[in-house]
Write a structure and sequence with these properties.
Blueprint lengths: L17 H31 L4 H26 L1
Length: 79
């Protein structure tokens, strides 16, 4: 009734890390598309409403500094 089972035959098969890499590539692609769309909208707003160019440039400068700070913090944390 009972048969001996080899414990090594029950170990799960090593699966390649392909799905995680594909998901990371998809998220990166979506992020680039989103950034491109935001830049196009900001460019359009600046072209249609020139009076908003100054405030948008100020916000873009602050956002750039914040993105750089988050990037540095992420890079230091990964080490």
């Amino acid at each position: 009734m009972f048969t001996a089972i080899d414990p090594q035959s029950q170990t799960p098969q090593q699966q390649p890390q392909q799905p995680a890499t594909d998901l990371r590539a998809l998220v990166t692609l979506c992020l680039f598309v989103l950034v491109a769309l935001v830049l196009l909208v900001v460019g359009y707003v600046c072209a249609v409403h020139p009076s908003l160019t100054g405030p948008i440039a100020t916000v873009a400068t602050v956002a750039g500094v914040l993105v750089a700070a988050v990037g540095v913090a992420y890079a230091v944390r990964r080490r």
